[in-house]
Design goal:
It contains ten helices and eleven strands. The chain has helices spanning 15-24, 53-56, 84-101, 122-135, 154-160, 180-192, 208-219, 230-240, 245-257, 272-284, and strands spanning 4-8, 28-33, 44-47, 65-68, 106-110, 140-146, 165-168, 174-175, 197-200, 206-207, 225-228.
Amino acid sequence: MARRALVAGATGALGSKVAQQLEARGWQVRRLTRSRAKAGASGEVHQGDALDPASLEGAAEGCELVFSALGASVAMDLSGWSGFTSLDVRANSNLIAEAQAAKVKRFVYVSVAHDEAVGKTAYVRAHEQVVERLKVSGLDWVVVRPTGFFSALGALFDLAKKGPLPSLGDGQAKSNPIDDDELALVCAAACEGTEREVACGGPEVLTRDQMAQAAFEALGQPVKLRKAPLVMARVAAVLMRPFHPRMAQMVQFIASLSEHDVVAPVRGSKRLVDYFRERAAAAKR
């Protein structure tokens, strides 16, 4: 009989790929989603909202594994208002409780790579609150800590098509973002592996300005950066807090990343500029 896994966030950029990778490894995957239509036609589906514990009842029944990529969107838009703590912590805490009730063997959660300074931001603190709850849950747990996903940096590409990109501070803070497909492979391996904490990044350590430059290079356009002091972002985050908590927390997180290096062990081989080039080629079709 095939091993069964519940994948939460299964219609998201990462969760959908992890579900496919687990299926390729022989797992029977049950997708947790608020929208059955978005889950596609393959495999089992449990329709439920992780913010509603009653809707999760039975979601993990018969599962050996729960994988969670649940979390509020990191898109810089106005569609989501609530902060990351009120969403990410509540949703994943409910999912942990369901896993406990179903006597699931292992729970794998995607947090975020960070240093001490970046760890003080509300975005990272929300993730780490989930980690702490997982550690005392009695479940066999694994935490995957990636640097930035390529898809999350896709906003740079979209903005570069329209004009100059903002460059906060000196633009020299470094990181090594990882391709979504390669991150999904890392996550699937973590579901079956022995590591407790899996930090992962891509093959290139780039400054924030070099990430922006890669977008212009892929578009075949001259590099256009508009410098802005970090204090502007910090002030903007404070001013936005009462009106749009999630946006304020994202601006705070981005400002911190623009000042501090976040580099993780290499677990991928794909380059950011090649991802942007694929986006550019797809746009021409």
